Amino acid sequence: MPPEDTTDLIINNATQYFFDNGLVGAVQNITRTVHSPQKVETNPLIQSDRPWEHITYFTCNGWQVWRDAESGRTNCIYEDWKLDRDKLVTKARGTIHAWVHARMRYLYAYSDNGIDWVKPPMGITEEHGHDTNIVFGSEEFGSVHGAGILDDPWEPDSKRRYKALYFYVPPTIDEVGGGLVKLAYSADGKQWSPSENAPVVGPERTQLDDVAIITPEPESRSYLAFTRHPFMSGSPTHVRMPPHGPTGGTPTYDLATDMPQRRNRRRIFLMESSDFKHWSAPRLVLAPDSEIDNLDTAFYGMKVQRLGNQWLGFLNILNMVSNTMHVELTHSRDGRTWKRVAPGRAWLAPGDPGDWDQFMVNINTAPLSVEPTELRVYFGGARNHHDWWFAGPTENRDDPSRWDHAPEVADMAEVSYCLGLAKMRRDGFVSLGASLEREGIIVTEPFVAPGNTLVINASCKEGGYVKVEVTDWQDQPVSGGR
Questions:
Q1: How far is Cα 44 from Cα 53, in angstroms, rounded to an integer?
Q2: Beta strands in 258-338 (DSSP E)
Q3: I need a surface site. Which of 104, 122, 320, 480 has the fewest CB within 10 A?
Q4: What is the CA radius of gyration of the chain?
Q5: Alpha-carbon separation of residue 456 from 65, 230, 257 (angstroms)
């Protein structure tokens, strides 16, 4: 990465964070600490508990939470899966992206306090005599999966305020499977109208994979989609498949085989659009590092959030051998070039053995500012592993007794994805600090900002102190500010 240019340090009135060293000119006796949110005791908040719910799929790109500023209501849309697992794992090259194997649809819930959730009858889909909270996807329409949903701040048409890129599988008997990426619009994020026009990706109209997490980019008034390349698991040069077929992911669309080449692992790609219909070709922005990551580390998806004039990312990392998932932090100053904040360290980790989230956690929604000093971090969690429960293990598949560490392989009742909540201090992701034994010094790079007020977000223990000196471009103290 090239050195920071001075024009990057025209900070205006934006809050500055210490995710990287862009603002740090010199330090003495200073350390950086990354702070994690604390899970609440009332978890899980949403789980499968209705007759029409099967597998509430609270994993990467399978759910989204947003808060309505006017009403104060917190909303959630989440995916539900119904699988024929026996057919899927015994059929040669079976895939979840086939109507003959799986049904996927989205459901809606809301909360007036962010803790207690209601699954209201929506009057859209009736199932077995129940007016359900199913809002998108049906036996007649087909499967809706992996929806990347955006509350568009610039859309003049109120009926299209919410937009979605989603993976669609039509109701056919196609044994091979596969699906298409489609567009849909909504006035409230609950009732959706699919578009007849498919998105256009790149000059060659490339098809997409099933993860696209979308965010608005305010300066250009455009959209950024953090996604996958449809051919990311293949290589244009020498590819040597293992003797027993692909492992470490779902058959047919993920050929990750744990071979020591970078192309065979999930990575983060970025595509951009000015109209949500025409997108640039996906380009690689973040991949596992051979000097930091293990051979089986894969980047499953990334949710990003604008903080001041910087960007923070929540990277969902799949460990393919253990079939587990955790979250790390990433950072960018332009939304296009990304680095990890603390590589190899989980910012949000799975729970302890026996917990409802013992094997997987993921972030698919940016933290919500609810209280003046508090952030609510909603996350998905699972007591089962990533895909052993539906794709099946490749060894000892017919001997469930060999899988006591993964009971979901033998019993689908052990599969449980839920929504959880963790809390942390607002603007408390990272801090620079000193010890009580030695005074620490931080010297910033020169920066330009209007006004005459500098606000420091600091906390001192007993006997501690903060002293601040502001100097001009000649390194002379400036008076008259506060």
A1: 16
A2: 268-273, 278-279, 283-286, 297-307, 310-319, 324-332
A3: 480
A4: 24
A5: 31, 45, 49
**Torsional sign, CA 133, 367, 12, 3:** negative
Residue pair 326/318 in contact by the 8 Å Cβ criterion: no
| CA-CA-CA-CA dihedral for 263, 268, 271, 277, to nearest 10 | 100
Q: Supply angle C-alpha 427, 68, 49, rounded to 5.
A: 100
SS (H, E, C) 156-215: CCHHHCEEEEEEEECCCCCCCCCCEEEEEEECCCCCEEECCCCCEECCCCCCCCCCEEEE
- Cβ atoms 377, 422 nearer than 8 A: yes
Place of tokens 């790079």: 445
* Confidence at residue 243, expressed as pLDDT on a 0 to 100 scale: 37
Residues in the chain: 482
Judge if the upstream peptide bond of residue 44 is cis by omega within 30 degrees of 0.
yes
Two structure tokens written together for 272: 């951009």
User: Which residue numbers in the chain have pLDDT < 70?
Assistant: 1-8, 90-94, 173-178, 204-207, 233-264, 392-398, 400-401, 480-482
For tokens 């809706």, the residue is: 144
SS in 3 state form for 279-300? Answer: ECCCEEEECCCCCCCCCCEEEE
Q: Can you list the positions of beta strands (E) in 99-161?
A: 102-111, 126-127, 130-131, 134-136, 143-151
The pLDDT, as a whole number, for residue 404 is 77
Using one digit for the tens of pLDDT, what is the confidence trace for 261-314? 456 678 999 999 999 999 998 988 998 888 889 988 999 999 999 998 899 999
Residue 390 is classified by DSSP as H
Closest C-alpha to 370, from 68, 46, 14: 68
First to last CA, the chain: 35
